[in-house]
Amino acid sequence: MPSLVEARSSNASFRPDYIPVAVFIGGTGGIAAEVAVLLARYTNGGIHVIIAGRNRLDGVKVLESLAKPLAYRDEEANNTLGSDSQQLLREFVFCDASSLRSVRTASENIHKLLRTQGQRINFLVFSAGYGNYFKSFDTMDGLDLQLMMRYYHRFKMAFELMPLLRNARDNEQDAKFLSILGSGIKWPVNPSDFGFKNLGVLGRMFKAFQTGLASAVYMDIMIEEFASRERGISFSHNWPGVVRTAQLDFAFRSYWLFTPFRPLFDLFVQATTVSAEESAEWTLFALLDASAEGKGFYRRWNHGQELNAGDASSPERKSLREKLFMHSVLEMHAEELSITSD
Ligand SMILES: NC(=O)c1ccc[n+]([C@@H]2O[C@H](COP(=O)([O-])OP(=O)(O)OC[C@H]3O[C@@H](n4cnc5c(N)ncnc54)[C@H](OP(=O)(O)O)[C@@H]3O)[C@@H](O)[C@H]2O)c1
Q1: What are the alphabetically sorted keywords of the record (predicted)?
Q2: What is the C-alpha to C-alpha distance for residues 278 and 4, in angstroms, rounded to an integer?
Q3: How far is residue 64 from each of residues 49, 50, 69, 157, measured CA to CA in Å?
Q4: Is 207 helix (H, G, I), strand (E, B) or coil?
């Protein structure tokens, strides 16, 4: 398990011999935004970045805060940007992760933007935050909101954008997927109702709690299946620990029952949690450290430490993986974007 200093120094040693393309879904704030900032810093600004989310203002703020190459800054100051510099991509793409249509449009727009960058993605990071273990909601597409936010849209976009990751791999560059959520959770999965659509009375009462846990388990299963299908690409699923972001506020602090205890809660939080920047350092370590060799998938905890791969290769697990994969393709109307199409 790397200390923060070790993670930082490992990240700082990242020296790609090409200009990477990084895409952050839910990168308008929280942990992913900090990972984008760090990755730009450690590559001295030599990186193409797309931030996707539903809040353009915040997305543009993140993009503007990213390090830029020295030459680019000089040219910008002198208002003499040459054609080479202008090719550095820093773009916001609208994506409401709770909507099937918006997710598809975002995949298409990312795909279009990357036509000028060799139609490749080196780092694809998912982090749009949502968690409510008390009350469940449906999306306008009739899907459970928590499953959509924490699992389905990540599957759909990964599936649709996979040709761009493959292209990076085929050019002998990094090709890495990372989902920031909750790895290593043990919770039973019901293969005949992955979408939690046929629950009894008791099941409906605790639906939010169940989908909160099941979405994390699905993500563990998803990376195993993708890794077995897409050799040469690494798939990581991280639990970031308890991190001071909007997610933490939403989950606990803003709940009205906690109002009288807020000062105490804030003291406790400060003592027991980490900042988004610290968490991002370990998250980036996990992303860069993942190798496409061997099993190709990684479950990690808050300090980048790897968890046991468990029973990933047993016949029962293999069958479960395939069933969830097929269910997700159908439920998400997932269709790969071709790297040669318009
Ligand atoms: N923070 C923690 O303690 C913690 C603990 C365990 C797991 N996690 C998981 O780690 C991941 C990152 O957490 P975080 O704390 O960085 O999350 P966060 O700050 O709550 O959210 C990250 C970003 O997601 C965006 N987002 C929310 N809803 C969206 C939607 N429908 N479409 C597109 N973007 C949306 C948010 O922007 P807007 O709301 O402005 O759109 C925000 O910028 C999440 O998956 C979370 O569940 C976090």
Answers
A1: Oxidoreductase
A2: 7
A3: 11, 12, 13, 25
A4: helix
Which amino acid appears at position 260 of this protein? P
Residues with C-beta less than 6 Å from any ligand 1 atom:
26, 28-31, 53-55, 58, 95-98, 127-131, 180-182, 239-240, 242-243, 245-248
Name residue 195's amino acid: G
What gap in Å lies between CA 208 and CA 141, rounded to an integer?
17
Q: Which amino acid is at 43?
A: T
Q: Which of 55, 146, 247 to mutate to test the pocket of ligand 1 (most atoms within 8 A of CB)?
A: 247
**Distance, CA of 164 to CA of 107 (rounded, Å):** 11
> How far apart are the C-alpha atoms of 188 and 308, rounded to whole Å?
18
Nearest to 289 by CA among 187, 147, 129, 176: 176
Q: Give the separation between CA 120 and CA 161, rounded to whole angstroms.
A: 9
Which residue shows structure tokens 């193409």? Answer: 48
Pick left, alpha or beta for residue 232 (phi over 0 → left; psi -120 to 50 → alpha; otherwise beta): left
Question: Which residue segments constitute the domains of the chain, with CATH numbers given?
Answer: 4-243+276-330 (3.40.50.720)
> Quick one: pLDDT band at residue 270, thresholds 50, 70, 90?
confident
Burial of 320 (0-12, 13-18, 19+ CB in 10 A): middle
More confident residue, 202 or 180: 180
Whether the Cβ atoms of residue 70 and residue 41 lie closer than 8 Å to each other: no
Closest C-alpha to 199, from 254, 281, 273, 144 = 144
For residue 22, give the 3-state DSSP assignment.
Answer: strand
Q: Whole-prediction pTM value?
A: 0.93
> Which among 24, 28, 38, 63 is the best mutation to test ligand 1's pocket, defined by most ligand atoms within 8 Å of the CB?
28
**For residue 306, what are the β-bridge partners?**
300
* Tens digit of each residue's pLDDT (9 = 90 or more) over 57-88: 999 999 999 999 877 666 666 666 554 555 79
